[in-house]
Specification:
The complex is a heterodimer of chains A (430) and B (364).
Chain A lengths: L1 H4 L11 H4 L4 E2 L5 E5 L8 E3 L6 E2 L4 E6 L3 E5 L4 E3 L3 E4 L5 E9 L19 H10 L13 H4 L7 E5 L9 H8 L1 H15 L3 E7 L3 H11 L5 E6 L8 H9 L12 E5 H13 L5 E7 L7 E6 L4 H7 L7 E6 L6 E2 L13 E6 L13 H5 L6 H9 L3 H6 L10 H5 L6 H16 L1
Parallel strand pairs in A: 1-15, 10-11, 10-13, 11-12, 14-18
Antiparallel strand pairs in A: 2-9, 3-5, 4-7, 5-6, 7-9, 8-9, 14-15, 16-17, 16-18
Chain B lengths: L1 E2 L13 H27 L1 H28 L4 H6 L3 H11 L6 H15 L13 H12 L14 H7 L11 H6 L11 H13 L6 H20 L6 H7 L3 H8 L10 H21 L6 H18 L4 H44 L2 H4 L1
Helix pairs in contact in B: 1-2, 1-4, 1-9, 2-4, 2-5, 4-5, 4-6, 5-6, 6-14, 9-12, 10-11, 10-12, 10-13, 10-15, 13-14, 13-15
The chains are: A alpha/beta (430), B mainly alpha (364).
């Protein structure tokens, strides 16, 4: 009922043509690679190697060891050096394992390959955990959690939407690994017991959808679904609502749905067939702040500075270097951070000044908020510290997708205002 | 090499408040162009020239007032003017006046509109009432008789309809001309068709919210139809109500003023329904020539209440909001029914008095 609530979405000019047609460029890892000791927000990571150890490509070097188990792997072969505290894409300085790359890339598969057709569900879940498969859409949520235990799932949604502007790395990944993707989806279907998998692709990619549909005829329970070219179509809740019309409170599993990224399915299939974890990433490097926009293939742990250099360097002396896309990615204040297992893009924009003015109260933020919130009311309530209103306005539902700031004609930092409100509420609760 | 930090997102759409105001100004000027053409062809160059002079008077007054105000407040005048848009208020106000308004009345009301309608509240974005509506109400209240004696135009259809107890008679203006707008009246309010076209264009450009005019005109039409059916009028009676008296102008250019209407979609719909109810009740019952203007000012007052009421996650409050809108709409229908009974009772009284006092011919 978009008449009474607003559209809750918006078409965005994604500038995807910058990188979607170019070939993927391989960027070699530098002399040192850095493995960040963090997964999502947790730094409770146990280090399994010590300084001076020899490691190979695929050696398990650390494991997140709290309520989630996420192993981390070396992407090169070489010698472990002393740990270093380096900037991370989450905009915090984080401990990293430093590995001196010997350039030989000797492999040591941490797992033995597994055929999903014969393996049991539990074997597949354990394999997924031990291979360190995490959500490659950007969140890095350990994928095996979604499949653990008794799950009453009827539909598996594979998210190939990639709604962030500039990003085409998922698309490049899918395009070059079609067989692996279908294998991964089949394995995931077996793990969750769902009847169908819906592979969601933006309607604008007509040729690609046709290609996928042709392939899907070989798989009875995989269906290709085209979704509108709007932001944030790739957000779990928007996608579930678009594809199945179902609404849920917290997690899609409440209504019998699992959502996984297409790249996650590909990485899982690769691990199943080779026993190797995520050691390489496709990364989109785009924006008006970098000379040659392209997709690159890099080893995890490669520094952003090395990737940008391989793409011709910066075009301006003052840039916004964003880990991820421009909508949800954070601007990082140096280029010494690394590409980790769930990073997919570097957006570099010239730092053009933004001139803002008084709020027009046009309500475009409220009309387009995919959570159905009223950002303008939240920001105003936060200014006068009106806790009752903030509770009523359900600030916690904000996922910081950034659409309110994108829409704002007065060029205000609406999303940042909502974040302030969230922080204020968190403090007030204590 | 500098890596600047800015909070995400770092991506914005092209549309700005300045471009919204520019599009709105262009829309208003298209309407004014129609006005000039009409007066030039119908009444001659002097009248067209007078319309231009009136417009200039108002725009200059509004701009000068703001310049002086910003000077007094020690603000950067150029920067403040760029984000204050005084001319929009002036243009809307002028278009709401008839051609025979005096320069003096227009100038004074413009100044009052800009100062007390906008600037004292804190400027653009902070005002409670639509400034142009404030200005027009000043003219209604204080300068009702201030018309230039040497500028003569015919009677307006709105006055004609109001004079016949809001019933369509053989002397009423033809419906097709009401939609085209080739008749004297408020300068920019006459052409339903042109305003609707400009409104559609502005809605397409996302300058105004289509919900407000669509809801307002639909509600007004339905309520008027109820009244028409109760009083033996034809099905076209509702069309008269939406065609006359600046209903379309108010719906497109004033009710959509984002500063003074609620920010959420449901809120704006409720706002428009409220405007429609007040418009028709004022038309049918009140001692005022027209209802659109006051309905807007009255609903402007309700905006904070509506916003407060509709606070919350819109997907969760949807049901409550829709029910509220439906209840308010039903209340509107009841009001119109009540107006109908009241007007008929009044008419009966007049007829009864006739038998006793022979005064009737003057009163009906």
């Amino acid at each position: 009922m978009s008449f009474f609530t607003g559209s809750m979405r918006q078409h965005i000019d994604g500038h995807k043509e910058l990188t979607s047609k170019s070939t993927v460029k391989v960027v070699e890892a530098g002399n040192l690679v850095y493995i960040p000791l963090i997964n999502m927000d947790s730094t409770k990571v146990e280090v399994l190697v010590k300084e001076g150890d020899l490691v190979k490509v695929g050696t398990k070097v650390a494991i997140r060891n709290d309520h989630f188990k996420v192993p981390m792997f070396s992407s090169v072969s070489g010698v472990v050096k002393a740990n270093a505290k380096v900037m991370h894409t989450s905009l915090k300085p984080v401990e990293h394992i430093v590995i001196e790359n010997d350039g030989q890339y000797l492999q040591q598969a941490p797992l033995s390959p597994l055929d999903h057709k014969v393996a049991t569900k539990q074997e597949l879940v354990d394999f997924m955990m031990n291979a360190g498969i995490v959500g490659c859409g950007g969140a890095g949520f350990p994928t095996y959690i979604k499949y653990s235990g008794e799950c009453n799932i009827h539909t598996l949604i594979i998210n190939g939407v990639e709604c962030e502007p500039y990003l085409t790395s998922d698309y490049a990944m899918m395009h070059e690994n079609l067989d692996l993707m279908f294998t991964g989806i089949s394995a995931m279907l077996k793990m969750c017991g769902a009847k169908t998998a819906k592979l969601c692709i933006k309607v604008t990619k007509k040729e690609f959808i046709q290609q996928l549909k042709d392939m899907a005829t070989n798989y009875q329970n995989i269906e290709v679904v085209s979704v509108p070219d709007v932001y944030p179509m790739g957000w779990e809740r928007t996608l579930v609502s678009q594809v199945t019309k179902l609404k849920y409170e917290k997690l899609p599993s409440e209504v019998g749905i699992i959502v996984n990224n297409a790249t996650t399915a590909i990485e899982f299939a690769r691990a199943l067939s080779t026993g190797m974890p995520i050691i390489e990433k496709y990364v989109t490097v785009a924006g008006d702040g970098v000379k040659n926009c392209c997709n690159v293939k890099v080893k995890t742990g490669t520094k952003a500075s090395e990737i940008i250099e391989a793409c011709g360097g910066y075009t301006s002396e003052n840039v916004l270097l964003i880990a991820g896309g421009p909508m949800m990615g954070k601007t990082i204040t140096n280029d010494q951070f690394v590409i980790h297992s769930y990073a997919g893009a570097l957006t570099v924009l010239k730092n053009n000044p933004v001139v803002s003015m008084a709020c027009l109260r046009c309500g475009k933020c409220s009309d387009h908020c995919p959570s159905g919130l009223q950002p303008v009311r939240i920001v105003n309530a936060e200014k006068v510290k009106d806790i009752d209103s903030l509770v009523k306005l359900d600030v916690a539902s904000c996922v910081e997708c950034g659409l309110c700031t994108y829409m704002c004609p007065s060029k205000l930092d609406v999303t940042e205002g909502v974040r302030r409100a969230k922080r204020y509420m968190a403090l007030a609760k204590k | 090499m500098k890596f600047t930090f800015k909070p995400s997102p770092n991506f914005r759409q092209a549309q700005s408040t300045q471009s919204i105001m520019r599009d709105l100004t262009i829309g208003l000027l298209v309407i004014f162009g129609f006005t000039l053409t009409y007066y030039f062809t119908e009444y001659g160059a002097n009248y067209a020239l007078r319309a231009v002079s009136l417009m200039l008077t108002s725009v200059v007054c509004a701009t000068l007032t703001e310049v002086i105000f910003f000077k007094c407040m020690k603000q950067d005048i150029k920067l403040s003017l760029q984000t204050s848009f005084p001319w929009v208020t002036a243009i809307i106000l002028t278009l709401m006046c008839s051609i025979n308004v005096t320069y003096y009345a227009l100038a004074i009301s413009t100044i009052i509109a800009v100062v007390f309608g906008k600037l004292v509240f804190g400027g653009f974005g902070q005002n409670i009432f639509n400034p142009a509506a404030v200005g027009r109400s000043i003219i209604f209240a204080s300068f009702a008789g201030s018309v230039s004696a040497d500028v003569i135009t015919g009677a307006t259809p709105t006055a004609g309809l109001a004079g016949s107890n809001w019933l369509v008679t053989s002397s009423s203006e033809g419906l097709s001309n009401l939609f085209l707008g080739l008749y004297p009246g408020a300068m920019g309010e006459t052409s339903f068709l042109l305003i609707a076209l400009v409104g559609a264009f502005l809605a397409y450009r996302k300058v105004i919210d289509y919900r407000v005019p669509v809801t307002y005109i639909t509600t007004l039409f339905l309520l008027a139809t109820v009244y028409g059916m109760m009083n033996g009028q034809g099905i076209e009676y509702g069309l008269y109500h939406i065609a006359i008296g600046g209903a379309m102008f108010g719906a497109v250019f004033m009710m959509t003023d984002p500063v003074t209407n609620p920010t959420c979609a449901s809120g704006r719909i409720l706002f428009a329904v409220g405007c429609a109810i007040l418009t028709i009740v004022i038309r049918l019952k009140a001692n005022l020539p027209e209802g659109v203007l006051y309905s807007i000012l009255l609903m402007n007052m309700m905006t904070p209440t509506i916003e407060k009421f509709m606070d919350g996650k819109q997907t969760l409050t949807l049901k409550k909001n829709v029910i509220t809108i439906a209840i308010v709409f039903m209340f509107g229908i009841l009001s119109v029914v009540a107006c109908s009974f009241a007007n008929n009772a009044q008419a009966d009284e007049v007829v009864n008095n006739t038998n006793d006092t022979y005064e009737v011919s003057y009163r009906v």
